[in-house]
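Q: Predict the bound structure with glycine.
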Amino acid sequence: MKRRNFLQKAALGSVGITALGSSITATAATPKKAKDKQDVLASNSLLPVVIATWSVAQATKKAWQSMEQGSSALDAVIAGCGVEEANAQGQSVGIGGLPDREGRVTLDACVMNEKGDYGAVLCMQNIKHPIAVARKVMEDTPHVILAGVGAEEFAVSQGFKRENLLTEQSKKDWETWKKTSKYKPIINIENHDTIGMLAVDKNGTISGGCTTSGLAYKMAGRVGDSAIIGSGLFVDNEIGAATATGLGEEVLKTVGSYLIVELIRQGKSPQEACELAIKRIIEKTPNFEDFQVGYIAVNKKGETGAYSIHEGFTATTYQDQKNTTFNPNFYNEK
Ligand code: GLY
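A: Predicted complex:
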């Protein structure tokens, strides 16, 4: 989609996303104030809902089932993200994540609950489930962020097991990369990195989580957007939630997830808000051809949105008893 068409399309009241041949349409009717909450809950046929970045049907199913069994939206997100963190074949989060330039797997994750509480771990090694540690930081410490060795030691003190997260495959890929790469991120490959998940339970209670091994072959100590409140994730239980995947540096500079939630607060649909947040990056970043960013969002009613700069981004919803993985619209249509 060329820029002019994008702007025209973004100005419309509702925008569709292609969903494996069908169309999911998000409308602009979004609650702005807490007093609208009862109206929203009176029409909550879209609830409960789970939406996640990428093709993670097992993860969204796990989150959905968790809510069906009576768990909170926060429990659902931790359980859902945990599926991907434990998947050693996946090279973007948890065990098997691609390492930094020195061969160290360092993980970032955060959670937010319906009270606006936040917890995060940054650049943590040797612990497979950073999302669960982030929750512990939120619930069991006086802080909101723990980083590096401190995060790892805290995790161990809470009963998490230390383990080697660098699988044979990821080690092999890193060794090949060292021989051949010029350290230039490749759209949808080295950026293909993050599981963000948003859940809204049947009562309209919203929580979210975001977990990643970060940009593959990053500099040692580099932290992206995923664990940073407002950038990789933001939840406002009165309004909605958003989360991001892609090149964290660009999400951080535009505080993308917070921007999306604020746009929903102003009356945009989740779809419109995701498109406007991508537009913000494009306006400010002349080299947007060189990297990928994708956003997903949900509002209190359970309406969802998803959008990215380039083709190749996928998202998965679990809604109305079924999993749907789809290719959202994107800006840079050739
Ligand atoms: N979006 C993940 C990162 O840039 O680290």
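A: Residues 63 and 118 are 19 Å apart (CA to CA).
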